[in-house]
Amino acid sequence: MDKFAHNRFLALFDIMGFTDLVYRNPHKEVLEVIDKVRKFADDVQASNTASLIFPKIFSDSILFVSDGDTDEDFAKIVYNADLFLGTMLEQGVPVKGAISHGLFTAWHEKSIFVGRPLVDAYVLAKDLKFYGAIFHHTMEKFIVRNTGVFSTWISKGKIPMTEGRVEHAYLNLSGERVRVFNSPDYEVKLRRFYDTVSGPVRKYVDNTIEVYCQ
């Protein structure tokens, strides 16, 4: 199995409120949400584009794994994470995630995915209090090295987390903002999430709009 272990980039996303969705809604509505994720995966596979990474879907978790950790691999993981995040938010699917790096075993044929980067991404994403994706500290040197390439895609700022606002690099959706949100419609589409939640959970929507629109 060692031959499948390489230093890789990894992007892990979770669908927010999925457990509650399963408990409180008809099975058909649950499948409609999953179908949006599946359609994204199908579109990636059908495109047969070298820059796209086919996502692995495990219930409410979506995983993107690079082949290695070259600058090209970095570009691919950032592009795919940005594309997925923007597409899901535009379609009304609340997701959050994290992007990490390290030694990781990815045996696609056997669906075996093991390594610390997965744990790093999971733990970091769990603390997020907005719909978005941030970079684990293992990504910092690659961000610096590729500043010229993705300077408009990656921003740094005070990100809402469990213990308050913390300085972190995050996907600013600049690429997806142009493609699916189209300026004035951007905040309008994010505000649609207010129609899906009540009470304290709405803070996620508040924070998302603040991060991306202000």
Largest sheet: 6 strands, mixed
Rounded Rg: 17 Å
The total domain count is 1
The tally of beta strands, per DSSP, is 8
Which bin fits the share of residues in helices? 40-55%
CATH fold descriptor:
Alpha-Beta Plaits
| Alpha plus pi helix count | 9
Instruction: Classify the beta-strand content into a percent band.
Output: 25-35%
CATH architect. name? 2-Layer Sandwich
The class by helix and strand makeup works out as alpha+beta
The first-to-last residue Cα distance is 47 Å
Mean pLDDT: 87
Task: Summarize the helix and strand pattern as letters.
Answer: EHHEEHEEHEHHEEHHH
What does this structure look like?
With 214 residues, the chain is an alpha+beta fold. It has one domain (2-213): Nucleotide cyclase, GGDEF domain (Alpha-Beta Plaits, 2-Layer Sandwich). Helices cover 45% and strands 26% of the residues. The protein has nine helices and eight strands. Strands 1, 2, 3, 4, 5 and 6 form a six-stranded mixed β-sheet that branches. A hairpin with a 2-residue loop joins strand 7 and strand 8. Helix 3 (71-90) packs parallel to helix 7 and helix 8 (184-191) runs antiparallel to helix 9. The radius of gyration is 17 Å and the shape is globular.
Q: Can you summarize this structure?
A:
By secondary structure, the protein is an alpha+beta fold. The protein is built from 9 helices and 8 strands.
